[in-house]
Design a protein that fits this description.
By secondary structure, the chain is α/β, with parallel strands linked by helices. The chain contains 15 helices and 14 strands. It is 36% helix and 16% strand. The chain is globular and about 75 Å long. It starts with 7 loop residues before the first strand and ends with a helix.
Length: 502
């Protein structure tokens, strides 16, 4: 959209998702865009729940440009429900979702130019809810109400409007079947649907619009839904809330995470409390559904891996009412960037190895998106408790690898809205050099990652012997490595339970 040349735009939470799309569209129109986001990048990095951070950011913007034309309050608040959300977490969600937009409007009030506009990103959850979303829903309701209050206070100076997105897929996934047809618009939304409205509300074409909330949800909030009417049916078995005693673990990486060792008789006895989600179709698997965690867990063409005995070992230590669920996506021989959502498409399209393409095809040629989409399904049933990585034989030799691993974790956290202080990242060592490990020289880089990032732990491969190729572990090596993952997880989250593991 034209008309934004040399305009000064503020976008909170502009490093990814809807925010990034808004930033890019303003930049296409010639605007200067100032972004603040917690994610590392070429922008102002900071937590907008912090008053001092907001003041420093505002001072920097005004010092550079002297005025502000448009403020877009887009940053996502924490989503947690009444069962698990603490007082402090609820206050944090309010700080990000309501207090920060208020305070930024106050800080920039003397500096808004003629024709300025504020656009607040609310959510269709400001008028409808799902269970266990209280912190997010309250924050979105708050910013919607703040919108009309600011519109009146800024009357004649700044127009203030809000947008309430519905289901917006930030990866531009094309959905078919019920996911699409349930929407009166016939599809799931994309970030462009929101960005287009933001730019319109900031333009002169919206000069007579202020104090309004515009819901962009494909018509979902306008249709009546009753069991038995017009094809709608509520399944009695449908879980209404995630089970807090169903612990979900996301696993990703290369061939060692997929599993390369023979599956033996002792590996075939599996507890009913140990489940894995099908991340591909094949044999007894249907994509996006749970199955008993009989190996192989990763794909039908994989073998025994560390996740198998990670789950079994946890079950030895946790209460009997706890179930364990594994969501595993692994690509043999891949660089870590195959899981970087911002870089993987350009790399994967260049892949010319047939065997690698066969694996990528099973994941829709986007391993990160497959892990994310399966994690979202899993999170409807349980609670994400940890992320396991085993990758590094290819490229774990410098800080760039560490930074990419951290970015992937942060991307998942942003998309899945889990509490990063409660969900550790466990990174496993490769086969050690003292056991003849060909890639054992990657272990110093792997071990150093725990020194650089919070809630990140290294899983030792001590005593985990290799198979004949000295790249992968033997069956017994995988069993022991899985136990090491479980031990390290419990040491990080519940030391008392860790002591119960033999």
């Amino acid at each position: 959209m034209e008309g934004f040349k040399d305009k000064v735009v503020i976008v909170t939470g502009g490093a990814q998702g809807i925010g990034r799309c808004i930033v890019e569209e303003f930049q296409k129109g010639g605007a200067y865009v100032c972004v603040i986001d917690k994610q590392e990048g070429p922008h102002f990095v900071g937590d907008i729940s912090d008053k001092q951070v907001l003041e420093q950011f505002a001072q920097e913007v005004i010092g550079m440009y002297g005025h502000v034309d448009y403020l877009v309050n887009n940053a996502l608040p924490l989503m947690k429900g009444i069962n698990e959300c603490s007082y402090e977490e609820f206050q944090y969600a309010m700080s990000v979702g309501v207090t920060a937009p208020f305070y930024l409007a106050k800080l920039f009030a003397p500096h808004f130019s003629e024709g300025a506009a504020i656009v607040n990103i609310s959510s269709s959850r400001d008028r409808m809810s799902q269970p266990q979303t209280e912190s997010y829903t309250a924050a979105k309701g708050g910013i919607a109400a703040l919108t009309h209050a600011l519109a009146v206070s800024f009357a004649g100076r700044v127009r203030v409007n809000s947008i309430s997105p519905g289901w917006i897929d930030t990866n531009y996934t094309v959905y078919e079947g019920p996911d699409a047809t349930q929407q009166p618009a016939g599809r799931v939304g994309t970030p462009m649907d929101i960005a287009n409205m933001v730019l319109f509300l900031c333009s002169d074409k919206a000069g007579f619009i202020t104090g309004e909330n515009i819901c962009i949800d494909g018509g979902m909030t306008r249709q009546m839904i009753y069991h038995g009417d017009n094809g709608w049916k509520l399944e009695a078995s449908l879980s209404q809330t995630p089970d807090p005693n169903f612990w979900i673990f996301l696993c990703f990486g290369q061939s060692n995470m997929a599993g390369q060792a023979p599956i033996e008789e002792q590996d075939m006895t599996v507890s009913e409390r140990f489940l894995s989600m099908a991340t591909t179709d094949g044999d007894d698997r249907k994509l996006g559904t749970w199955r008993k965690a009989v190996p192989p867990l990763c794909r039908p063409d994989a073998n025994l891996g560390p996740a198998d005995w990670f789950g079994r070992t946890l079950l030895e230590a946790v209460p009997d009412n706890v179930r364990i669920g594994i969501v595993s996506v692994a690509v043999e021989g891949c660089p870590i960037t195959f899981f970087d959502k911002d870089r993987n498409a350009s790399l994967i399209v260049m892949e010319d190895r047939d065997w690698m393409n066969d694996i990528l095809n099973q994941y829709g040629r986007d391993p990160y998106e497959r892990l994310l989409s399966m994690a979202k399904i899993a999170a409807r049933d349980g609670v994400i408790k940890g992320i396991l990585l085993h990758q590094g034989k290819t490229d774990a030799y410098d800080r760039e690898w560490q930074d990419t691993v951290r970015k992937i974790y942060c991307d998942l956290q942003q998309e899945l809205q889990f509490d990063p202080t409660a969900v550790p990242l466990l990174v496993g060592e490769v086969v050690r050099t003292e056991y003849g490990g060909i890639c054992g020289h990657a272990n110093p880089t792997i071990n150093d990652i725990a020194n650089r990032y919070p809630n990140t732990y290294v899983v030792s491969s001590e005593d985990c012997l290799p198979c004949d190729d000295y790249l992968h572990f033997s069956s017994e090596g995988y069993r022991l490595l899985g136990r090491h993952y479980a031990q390290r997880y419990l040491e990080a989250t519940n030391p008392q339970l860790a002591e119960t593991i033999n």
